[in-house]
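PROTOCOL LOG
Step 1. Enter all chains and additional molecules of the complex.
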Amino acid sequence: SAVISQKPSRDICQRGTSLTIQCQVDSQVTMMFWYRQQPGQSLTLIATANQGSEATYESGFVIDKFPISRPNLTFSTLTVSNMSPEDSSIYLCSVEGHHPPGSNEKLFFGSGTQLSVL
Amino acid sequence: QKEVEQNSGPLSVPEGAIASLNCTYSDRVSQSFFWYRQYSGKSPELIMSIYSNGDKEDGRFTAQLNKASQYVSLLIRDSQPSDSATYLCAVNKDNFNKFYFGSGTKLNVKP
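Step 2. Run joint prediction.
Step 3. Record the structure below.
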């Protein structure tokens, strides 16, 4: 499966500031996904990032709050803008892959970013 | 109605016992089903996938799928304290690359 590196692994931020999370994959992938996992909750898809086009956002998430970049097939960033304590969460980058080769698509995750907003 | 439902637990089992984790999903068009293990403070790790009715075994893990009942389960045989984690059920409904996750069941395996 792909190796997905995410940074920072954790950060503590002040209200009103912004944080950019980076995700690097060791192989080229068509789509990269950004999820949020709030404390005690499940994973919620924020958006799908395609290379060469604007990200597709899920209901309840907007580009002004969560701008995404996808400059190439191995890299993406998610920015959490104008943060409030409600944004405290784990943010996860993920990609689809076929592992083992020839198998159905599966979702693999980066190591995650633990964000705390004061 | 949530796409994927799981009992939040915690489910406590003694070491060596069988842990049984359950999941139901709402949409009959769901095609692919997954179990992820998530240790506290870590990201989810894929442990099982199943696509057709019946059982699929991998080591101590068995995934069971019943599409008629819209039910997926994960059995962990010979449970170990290292199995203590939150187990997330996920479904992929179609070719739009959307995965839906349950809220997870917390498993505690007591030595």
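Step 4. Note key features.
The mean pLDDT of chain A is 92.
Chain A touches chain B at residues 1, 31, 33, 40-45, 48, 90, 92, 96, 103-112, 114 (CB under 8 Å).
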